[in-house]
């Protein structure tokens, strides 16, 4: 028996409807995939070494690191510089405790301790403050990069050894990435330092960025991977 014209028309309408639904689903999927993921937040928590003190605007650690990351293809990253000139580890811990929401991040660079060392704060106190900061970030799932500090030789052997051990011990304890000395390749080089012989100039900042950027990028990659896994669940 031949199919009626009504049956043929119905089949054609059904095929057309299925095709329209498939195209609509494809368009929706492509549109969803085209939506950019929220930017990763990279927080810098430090003192005058990372706040940009004494260098021209746009050439401090934050802007210089942002340029390096963009050049390396990391364009979906928001950098927030929460550094404060003059901060000790205790000052930074107090700020974090008072407004923790202001310091949330996917990746944090912790660059603190220089002012503690210059005022000869007992190393166990410095370690305790940093430990509290790192503990908080670890509990939030934040990736951590530690910008370490070394003590001045004139402070004596005991202080030097005790202080200098703080950063590798904490990095090992919390599984953080360690850049052992934030001023590596800069401190003691007049062409890279300001006249106070404490802070890096613009060229010194560029040298710091060149050294620490690979660590930062690895942690950004890890944070992005963790986000993809969470979104897939």
Describe what you observe in this structure:
- With 233 residues, the protein is an alpha/beta fold.
- It folds into two domains: 1-35; 40-232, SGNH hydrolase (Rossmann fold, 3-Layer(aba) Sandwich).
- Helices cover 54% and strands 11% of the residues.
- It has nine helices and five strands; from the N terminus they run H-E-H-H-E-H-E-H-H-E-H-H-E-H.
- Strands 2-1-3-4-5 form a five-stranded parallel beta sheet, with helices on both faces.
- The protein is globular and about 85 Å long.
Key phrases:
single chain, 233 residues, alpha/beta, Rossmann fold, 2 domains, five-stranded parallel beta sheet, 9 helices, 11% strand, globular
Quick synopsis:
The chain is an alpha/beta fold.
- β-strand amount: 5-15%
- Under CATH at level 1, the class of the largest domain stands as Alpha Beta
Please tell me how large the radius of gyration is.
26 Å
- Principal-axes geometry comes out as globular
Secondary-structure-derived class: alpha/beta
Total separate domains? 2
Helix/strand order = HEHHEHEHHEHHEH
The appropriate CATH architecture of the largest domain is: 3-Layer(aba) Sandwich
What do we call the CATH topology of the largest domain? Rossmann fold
Low-pLDDT runs:
none
Number of helices: 9
| β-strand number | 5
The largest pleated sheet is described as:
5 strands, parallel
